[in-house]
């Protein structure tokens, strides 16, 4: 057939070049892109039920393959909204057990901005870690008992103990972490990456967000962290929800089955082509392409979220909660399934970590719910050879104070702390089994190799083959970028 | 192009590929871009011709930011001066292109010598060079950036099409077309035209009757009459309002972490509708919104005040750890940038941290604009007190409330008169009695009268240990280090239990019972507690049971569930975690379950407690020194409503160094001396310390509902000072006094407005906002008087007289009181205690409280207002709220448009500066947005940026003409809309030819009519209208149409349940009335680029994603509309072709083409077959949506037709403005 003899991508490129040659500038180029979309649309129609093939790339993104060799092809960003206490989990400071109840030395505390929830306190007694630490693996990393499973894979992980943030309220810190600016309105990391690199799977969104839904959440997520900001809105994260409709509106209405829907789409297609003949509006072609993708998503989304084909041993690896939809554990498993299918950026958000009170009772259940799934995700990716080019990051929007909020008593809590905290990464070209940077003996300030939020984002882009200073978008008279006017690639964490 | 049969095309996509390929490959190299094809302007203009060339090729190295080799080409003086690195040469020699280095370099054949350097991959075309040469030859004159030059009228060149021009607009458009070798399209047909203009002006499609009437009307004035009718309609006003709501970042919730319900939003939206309907001139429209509160000499009409809700419509975040001043500064800055975006088309935000890199806006300019908004009476952060805003507001009563308020107020006035009379009589009586009595033993009399009214007295001379163990015993069961990981541990089980079916069922039963009993559901944070909400929870719970995979109950519901379970006697130890929270009581401040009680100085009265204080030598006996301490009086002490008089009397010793200052809280207090207030809003009263001066505030919600005075002079530090405050219970700052060491002290009144309750309250058992009675020391968000000391705390239930205060300070002072003064004061005291006065006062208080209760229940709209005292403004380093640099005074942007010294330096002055007819930006910016709404893009495409980095106008002379016409018309908005839609340009056919697409892909030059995807709201409204479901009800509360289940869960801590038991017809209101929650965008509109309203937006992207198809095909809202449309269609005729024609006409407002009709028929037939084969499917499809199914219709036919209507409504023409 004719359509087999011409690769639509080639056609699209030819047409784009021919327009470029006329040097008409942006407008014509945009039209060319629309037309290119049209070609793809029609190519896609050739097979109404295309096989689930990662690799049929409908959108190369602005940069295509990036500025230089990519070590990571995709990202799983795990975020603990509310903030994990680094003191009780990954930042081992043995002296703290001794200092329990003694005043945090003023020389350590300094004059940094602290949350107004505890800045009225006049004493700041050290609260010892709420759990004992053990050493793990070849690297001998100390991890607390709250993260035994993560500890067990310490040799695969890259810890950063010296990240800090100027924001000490949840939303501003979270938004800064994910967009490079503390107020809503800028594009999020996932949107930037989608914009830059496009997608590897025409049948699924390139940027997927999943929030844990099973536990109480005093501090919830904010859509600003998966917003497209001023980038074209198609780059926004698509939320996968638990329940029977994983993507809003993906399910046919009652009484409409797949065949009927195909008839409708064919009808829309035919009539749209007729309308196109009449109006000459290239936007119509693009619409046809999007309807076809919608149709394919209706199949591919339920397929990817249906875990009935996962063997028992895999489920067991993720722990008991994986069997409950909407749990963090389930979302980890889904993340792996999405990664297998070429989704570029997945944001897993867990909520309810904000333990100002009774951290000793409240942190452990949260840790328990995420520890095993996190470890399982990394291990699962590794076993399938996917960890090599998948970057996994685990973080919160800030850390928690070493001092007790509300004094030392059974209900001691920890307040927000931006001065230093710990995150870890795995895969995607990071150097496994190391710890980068160091906090002071009180886990209160960065002692060595400070890492800014922008540095982290610069590094993530670097691993994806993108120069963070060259990934820009012109808006309101200015070239904006994810890393604002800052950011340095953290050489020390690269493999 | 090759003519192809459309239906064969769909079957074989390849053929089309060829077709398109042909267009592109044959259409290349059009005349328009060939050098010389577009003539070189006779007089090249800096802004239009020269600057774009330099900006694109040279400024990166030789511009404002960087000057390689010392050259900058954007500055004439430098560009024409001697080159620092090439002596004797000049880049530009005016009048002599041959000598200009610029020309030599850009036209050189030597690749190493040529500019721009080869690495940039840029080069100038021959035409570019020719333009530069001619411009230099003519003197190389520079101009200000075009947008900063006041518009001037330039008549367009004549063209061959002038005779078909309808108004001036067309002549400008034609001139540009001619210049670019294009020609206008033919006029659109009448069907298309009425469809276009109706959808455009009203956001709704025309009815078929309207279409038929217009098509049949051959009166040459028919179109104008149509336009006039549309402009006069309410639907027009609604559509314009909808557009303005984006610019006003209008929403129903606050945004941020909590994202709860804002005080009432809709009255402002409804005001917009009436303003557009009445065609309020744009200058008034803007002035009212920016400064309505200052009109008519500060006595604005209700509408003018309401308009200022615009300024308050932004996000108002709050978090537990937020610093009020930081957030307030955010609001001020947000409004500053709003002025740029909405009115000036400038990106002011850049100048928040540094001088603007490209535009003539310095950082000081930014803060000069900010200074106008820095006066507003508000605070940042969590400034909401059960619906009362933290700034000025407008009461928005229902008619019934209005009547109640009127009556209650009359009653208050009556009781006031009675009280005044009783007091007058009692005073006369008391004066007589006092005059008759001897004045000996004055001290004893005074002491007795004070003692009689002393409610509490704490000398702090001794203390003893009490035991709170019973309260804390639960908490101690689990100490640090206990962390059950076992999923079977009680704690784990408890967590999961909250969301398991049995808990859900329990809740469901409980809520159902509450709903049945008409009770409000307790403790749902920040939310309207209406039945709607409760039913929403019920529906969500129902959905959760049906679909176990749905999101579980979110935080507030879990908290609430805990309470309900405990209240219901679920004492299972599984709930101990929640149980402890609730029972914690005084919780963490108390050490180890033990507490020090301090005895009352009045025998028999309850002790207070102190914790973590140091006992020091006091003013008398021992005093307490504070350090992470708590001092709290006994329960009920010092708890006063604003109607009650009282006095506080105590000694305080401030630490000398460091002084109590807190740079994070410039509004203070830097320390709390005494407070009787619980909630974070500070309801109650507080004596604080700011910059060494004591302040005394009685507050409902700061700063607006607050009485506040401050001492003029600082209090001496390092020694015991005797402080007495008195308040007369009359809700006025004039009735508040400070006495220092027994003497009346001069004060400044900072706020004097209190009409709502100041009774301290707050839960006694919460981490946040707890109320422990009259206290000093640490508490959540309170700044303690660290290292300060307190002594001799006394609370008196009456406003003491000066003589009494003097006595408390030192009885010997009584000697200096004159006899007449003593008698007068004794009489005053006696009169105040007279039973008739006490009685009258009680009745007055009751009336005031009754009125207050009504007032509190009335919904409120936030409006703008300035604080009484001028607040200085400063440049803030990098925008940080407390990083003050030099002071600035309020004014406009001097280098964009000079400030007029006659203008007041307040928001009114700012608004007048904006609306000055000579202001170069205001009119241009708005006509450009109007243009955008009609044509899809603006004349300046970057509608939010008219600065040097924005795009140049495609038709600068037209833009100026429109701006001048707008001002000349008296800022007449309807006049401008009419001018635009009357133009021949607007009325052109919008079909695209390959040639047009090639030459003008974005239709910038308007050689064809507008064509773009409908805006989100119009798409939905169009479907509702086609189906006949649309309920045209104007204004009022926002509505909650269909939304996916659990759509609000997990995005915020407040408002987590989407209300669902909406009256059926409210599902079908226009989309602009849909409730907007900032953190959870309206799901089916968001997909079509409705902004989330966190920020203002003046231009929406037009995206195209697969999710759009999913919404249009699957959303209940649309599927229901397709069914109703199918019913209409089936009712219209018995003939199938007639039915399908009606369908097309209703959906697209034109008759189907033969091919379309054939395709539709084919789909209908195949669907009928399917439905007949599986009738149960038909039933399911018909059951979607709340509206009843037409009983006359055959279910199978109706179902099949519904599939078909869905298909037609999903074809591009059905949701494209064309």
Write the layout of secondary structure elements.
The complex is a heterodimer of chains A (495) and B (1218).
Chain A: H1 2-5, H2 8-21, H3 26-45, E1 74-80, H4 86-89, H5 95-99, H6 106-109, E2 133-136, E3 141-144, H7 148-152, E4 157-164, H8 170-179, H9 189-197, E5 207-211, E6 238-239, H10 258-279, H11 282-305, H12 312-318, H13 328-340, E7 345-350, H14 359-383, E8 390-396, E9 399-400, E10 416-417, E11 421-426, E12 434-436, E13 438-439, E14 446-448, E15 451-452, H15 453-463, E16 472-475, E17 478-481
Parallel strand pairs in A: 1-7, 1-8, 4-12, 4-15, 5-6, 5-7
Antiparallel strand pairs in A: 2-3, 4-11, 8-11, 9-10, 13-14, 16-17
Helix pairs in contact in A: 2-3, 3-11, 10-11, 13-14
Chain B: H1 6-11, H2 13-26, H3 46-57, H4 59-62, H5 76-79, E1 82-83, E2 86-90, H6 101-107, H7 126-137, H8 168-179, H9 190-202, H10 208-216, H11 222-232, H12 234-247, H13 266-277, H14 282-291, H15 295-298, H16 302-307, H17 324-344, H18 363-373, E3 393-396, H19 399-436, H20 442-452, E4 454-458, E5 463-467, H21 469-477, H22 490-497, H23 501-516, H24 531-546, H25 555-567, H26 576-583, E6 594-598, E7 608-611, E8 614-617, E9 622-625, E10 630-632, E11 646-653, E12 671-677, E13 684-690, E14 693-701, E15 705-711, E16 720-727, E17 736-740, E18 743-744, E19 747-753, E20 775-777, E21 789-796, H27 802-809, H28 819-833, H29 835-857, E22 859-862, E23 873-876, E24 884-888, H30 907-915, H31 922-935, H32 956-968, H33 973-982, H34 994-999, E25 1012-1013, H35 1016-1027, H36 1083-1086, H37 1106-1114, H38 1116-1132, H39 1136-1148, H40 1154-1173, H41 1175-1182, H42 1195-1209, E26 1216-1217
Antiparallel strand pairs in B: 1-2, 3-22, 4-21, 5-6, 6-7, 7-10, 8-9, 9-21, 10-20, 11-16, 11-21, 12-13, 13-14, 14-15, 15-19, 16-17, 17-18, 23-24, 25-26
């Amino acid at each position: 057939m004719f359509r087999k003899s011409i690769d639509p991508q080639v056609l699209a490129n030819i047409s784009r070049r021919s327009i470029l040659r006329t040097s008409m500038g942006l407008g014509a180029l945009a039209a060319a892109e629309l037309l290119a979309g049209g070609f793809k649309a029609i190519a896609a129609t050739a097979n109404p039920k295309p096989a689930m093939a990662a690799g049929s790339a409908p959108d190369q993104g602005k940069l295509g393959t990036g500025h230089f060799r990519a070590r990571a092809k995709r990202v799983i960003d795990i975020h603990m909204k509310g903030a994990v206490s680094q003191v009780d989990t990954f930042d081992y400071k043995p002296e703290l057990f001794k200092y329990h109840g003694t005043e945090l030395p003023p020389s350590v505390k300094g004059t940094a901005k602290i949350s107004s929830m505890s800045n009225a306190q006049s004493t700041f007694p050290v609260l010892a870690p709420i759990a004992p630490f053990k050493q793990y693996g070849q690297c001998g990393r100390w991890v607390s008992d709250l993260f035994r499973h993560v500890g067990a894979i310490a040799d695969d992980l890259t810890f950063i103990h010296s990240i800090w943030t100027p924001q000490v309220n949840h939303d501003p810190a979270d938004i800064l972490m994910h967009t490079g600016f503390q107020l809503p309105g800028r594009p999020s990391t996932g949107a930037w990456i989608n914009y830059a690199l496009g997608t590897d799977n025409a049948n699924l969104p390139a940027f997927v967000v999943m929030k844990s839904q099973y536990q109480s959440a005093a501090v919830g997520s904010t859509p600003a962290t998966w917003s497209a900001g001023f980038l074209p809105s198609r780059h926004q994260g698509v939320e996968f929800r638990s329940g029977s409709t994983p993507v809003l509106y993906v399910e046919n209405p009652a009484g409409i089955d797949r065949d009927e829907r195909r008839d409708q789409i064919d009808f829309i297609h035919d009539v749209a082509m007729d309308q196109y003949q009449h109006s000459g509006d290239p936007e119509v072609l693009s619409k046809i392409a999007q309807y076809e993708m919608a149709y394919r998503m209706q199949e591919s989304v339920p397929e990817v979220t249906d875990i009935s084909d996962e063997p028992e041993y895999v489920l067991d690896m993720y722990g008991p909660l994986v069997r409950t939809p909407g749990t963090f554990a389930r979302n980890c498993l889904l993340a792996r399934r999405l990664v297998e299918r070429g989704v570029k950026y997945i944001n897993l958000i867990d909520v309810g970590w904000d333990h100002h009170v009774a951290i000793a009772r409240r942190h452990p259940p949260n840790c328990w719910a995420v520890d095993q799934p996190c470890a399982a995700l990394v291990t699962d990716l590794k076993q399938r050879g996917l960890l090599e080019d998948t970057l996994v990051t685990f973080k919160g929007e800030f850390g928690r104070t070493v001092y007790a909020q509300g004094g030392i008593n059974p209900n001691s809590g920890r307040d927000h702390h931006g001065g230093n905290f710990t995150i870890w990464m795995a895969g995607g070209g990071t150097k496994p089994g190391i710890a980068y940077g160091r906090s002071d003996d009180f886990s209160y300030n960065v002692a060595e190799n400070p890492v800014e939020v922008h540095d982290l984002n610069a590094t993530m882009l670097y691993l994806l083959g993108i120069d963070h200073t060259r990934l820009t978008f012109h808006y309101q008279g200015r070239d904006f970028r994810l890393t604002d006017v800052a950011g340095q690639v953290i050489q020390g964490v690269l493999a | 192009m090759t003519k192809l049969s459309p239906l064969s095309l769909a079957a074989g996509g390849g053929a089309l590929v060829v077709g398109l390929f042909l267009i592109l490959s044959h259409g290349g190299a059009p005349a328009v871009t060939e050098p010389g094809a577009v003539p070189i302007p006779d007089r090249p203009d800096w802004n239009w011709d020269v600057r774009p060339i330099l900006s694109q090729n040279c400024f990166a190295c030789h511009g404002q930011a960087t000057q390689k080799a010392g050259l900058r080409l954007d500055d004439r003086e430098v560009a024409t001066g001697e080159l620092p690195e090439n002596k004797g040469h000049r880049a530009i020699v005016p009048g002599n292109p041959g000598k200009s280095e610029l020309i030599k370099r850009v036209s050189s054949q030597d690749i190493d010598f040529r500019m721009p350097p080869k690495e940039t991959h840029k080069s100038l075309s021959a035409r570019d060079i020719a333009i530069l040469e001619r411009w230099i030859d003519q003197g190389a004159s520079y101009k200000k950036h075009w947008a900063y030059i006041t518009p001037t009228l330039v008549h367009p060149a004549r063209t061959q099409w002038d005779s078909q021009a309808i108004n001036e607009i067309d002549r400008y458009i034609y001139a540009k077309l001619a210049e670019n070798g294009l020609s206008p399209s033919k006029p659109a047909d009448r069907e298309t035209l009425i469809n276009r203009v109706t959808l455009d002006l009203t956001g709704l499609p025309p009815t078929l009757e309207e279409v038929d009437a217009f098509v049949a009307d051959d009166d040459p004035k028919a179109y104008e009459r149509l336009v006039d009718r549309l402009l006069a309609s309410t639907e027009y006003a609604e559509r314009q309002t909808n557009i303005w709501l984006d610019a006003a970042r209008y929403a129903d919730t606050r945004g941020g972490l909590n994202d709860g319900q804002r005080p009432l939003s809709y009255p402002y939206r409804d005001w917009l509708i009436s303003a557009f309907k009445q065609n309020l001139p744009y200058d008034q429209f803007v002035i009212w919104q920016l400064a309505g509160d200052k009109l008519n000499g500060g006595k604005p009409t209700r509408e003018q005040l309401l308009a200022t809700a615009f300024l308050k419509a932004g996000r108002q975040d709050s978090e537990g750890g937020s610093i009020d001043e930081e957030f307030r500064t955010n609001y001020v800055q947000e409004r500053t940038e709003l002025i740029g975006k909405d009115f000036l088309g400038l990106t002011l935000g850049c100048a928040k941290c540094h001088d603007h890199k490209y535009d003539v806006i310095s950082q000081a300019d930014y803060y000069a604009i900010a200074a106008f908004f820095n006066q507003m009476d508000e605070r940042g952060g969590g400034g909401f007190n059960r619906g009362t805003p933290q700034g000025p507001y407008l009461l928005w009563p229902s008619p019934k409330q209005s009547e109640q308020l009127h009556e209650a107020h009359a009653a208050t006035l009556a009781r006031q008169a009675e009280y005044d009379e009783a007091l007058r009589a009692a005073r006369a009586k008391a004066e007589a009695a006092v005059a008759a009595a001897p004045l000996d033993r004055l001290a004893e009399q005074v002491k007795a009268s004070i003692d009689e009214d002393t409610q509490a007295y704490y000398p702090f001379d001794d203390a003893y240990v009490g035991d709170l163990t019973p309260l804390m015993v639960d908490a101690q069961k689990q100490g640090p280090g206990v962390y059950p990981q076992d999923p079977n541990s009680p704690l784990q089980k408890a967590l999961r239990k909250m969301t398991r079916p049995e808990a859900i069922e329990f809740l469901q039963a409980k809520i159902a019972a509450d709903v049945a009993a008409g009770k409000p559901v307790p403790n749902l944070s920040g939310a309207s507690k209406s039945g709607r909400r409760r039913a929403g929870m019920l529906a969500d719970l129902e959905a959760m049971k049906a679909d176990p995979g749905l999101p579980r109950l979110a935080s507030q519901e879990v908290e609430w569930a805990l309470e309900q379970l405990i209240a219901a006697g679920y004492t299972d130890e599984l709930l101990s975690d929640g149980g402890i929270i609730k029972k914690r009581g005084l919780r963490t401040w108390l050490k180890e379950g033990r507490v020090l009680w301090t005895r009352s100085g009045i025998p028999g009265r309850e002790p207070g407690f102190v914790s973590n204080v140091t006992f020091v030598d006091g003013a008398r006996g021992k005093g307490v020194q504070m350090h992470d301490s708590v001092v709290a009086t006994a329960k009920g002490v010092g708890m006063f409503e604003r109607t009650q008089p009282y006095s506080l009397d105590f000694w305080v010793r401030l630490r000398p160094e460091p002084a109590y200052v807190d740079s994070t809280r410039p509004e203070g207090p830097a320390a709390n001396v005494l407070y009787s207030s619980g909630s974070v809003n500070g309801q109650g009263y507080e004596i604080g310390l700011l910059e060494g001066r004591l302040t005394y505030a009685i507050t409902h919600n700061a700063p607006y509902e607050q009485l506040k005075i401050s001492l003029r002079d600082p209090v001496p530090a390092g020694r015991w000072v005797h402080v007495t405050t008195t308040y007369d219970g009359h809700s006025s700052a004039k009735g508040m006094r400070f006495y220092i060491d027994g003497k009346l002290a001069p004060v400044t009144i900072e706020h004097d407005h209190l009409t709502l309750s100041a009774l301290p309250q707050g839960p006694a058992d919460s981490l946040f906002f707890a109320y422990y009675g009259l206290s000093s020391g640490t508490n959540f968000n309170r700044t303690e008087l660290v290292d300060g000391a307190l002594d001799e705390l006394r609370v008196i239930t009456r406003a003491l007289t000066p003589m009494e205060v003097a006595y408390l300070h030192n009885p010997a002072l009584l000697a200096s009181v004159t006899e007449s003064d003593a008698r007068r004061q004794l009489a005053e005291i006696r009169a105040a205690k007279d039973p008739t006065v006490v009685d009258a006062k009680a009745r007055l208080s009751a009336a005031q409280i009754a009125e207050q209760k009504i007032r509190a229940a009335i919904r409120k709209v936030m409006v703008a207002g300035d604080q009484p005292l001028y607040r200085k403004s400063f440049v803030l380093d990098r925008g940080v709220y407390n990083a003050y640099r030099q002071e600035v005074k309020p004014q406009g942007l001097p280098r964009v448009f000079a400030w007029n010294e006659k203008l007041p330096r307040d928001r009114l002055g700012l608004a007048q500066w904006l609306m000055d007819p000579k202001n170069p930006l205001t009119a241009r910016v708005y006509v450009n947005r109007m243009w955008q709404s009609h044509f899809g893009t603006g004349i300046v495409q970057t509608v939010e940026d008219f600065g040097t980095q924005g795009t140049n106008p495609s038709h600068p002379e037209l833009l100026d003409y429109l701006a001048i016409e707008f001002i000349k018309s008296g800022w007449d908005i309807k006049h401008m809309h009419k001018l635009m839609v009357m133009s021949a340009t607007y009325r052109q056919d919008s079909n695209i030819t390959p040639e047009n697409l090639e030459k003008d892909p974005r239709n910038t030059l308007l050689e064809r009519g507008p064509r773009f995807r409908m805006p989100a709201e119009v798409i939905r409204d169009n479907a509702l209208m086609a189906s006949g479901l649309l309920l045209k009800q104007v204004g009022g509360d926002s509505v909650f149409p269909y939304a996916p289940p659990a759509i609000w869960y997990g995005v915020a801590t407040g408002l987590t349940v989407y209300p669902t038991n909406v009256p059926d017809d409210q599902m079908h209101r226009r989309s602009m009335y849909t409730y907007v929650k900032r953190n959870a965008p309206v799901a089916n509109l968001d997909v079509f680029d409705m902004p989330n309203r966190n920020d203002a937006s003046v231009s929406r992207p037009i995206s195209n994603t697969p999710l759009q198809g999913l919404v249009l095909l699957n959303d209940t809202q649309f599927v229901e509309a397709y069914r109703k449309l199918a019913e209409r269609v089936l009712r219209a005729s018995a003939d199938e072709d007639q039915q399908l024609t009606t369908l097309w006409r209703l959906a697209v407002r034109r008759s189907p083409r033969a091919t379309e009709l054939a395709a539709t028929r084919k789909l209908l037939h195949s669907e009928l077959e399917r439905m007949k084969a599986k009738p149960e499917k038909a039933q399911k499809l018909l059951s979607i949506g709340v509206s009843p199914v037409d009983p006359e219709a055959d279910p199978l036919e109706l179902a099949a037709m519904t599939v078909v209507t869905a298909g037609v409504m999903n074809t591009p023409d059905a949701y494209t403005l064309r």
